[in-house]
Design goal:
Blueprint (H helix, E strand, L loop, with lengths): L4 H27 L3 H6 L2
Length: 42
């Protein structure tokens, strides 16, 4: 199999997008939670 530059760039782009999505989603969810409840562990 030949890996060309466009395929390599597409793979890098997809990896970055997936990484950003899966890191922003939990952070957004955590930012909406009440800090007191988060510290309490409920």
């Amino acid at each position: 199999p030949v890996i060309t530059v466009p395929i390599m760039l597409l793979a890098i782009f997809v990896a970055i997008v997936v990484g950003v999505i899966f890191s922003i989603a939990p952070a957004y969810k955590a930012s909406r939670k009440d800090p007191i409840q988060a510290l309490r562990g409920d």
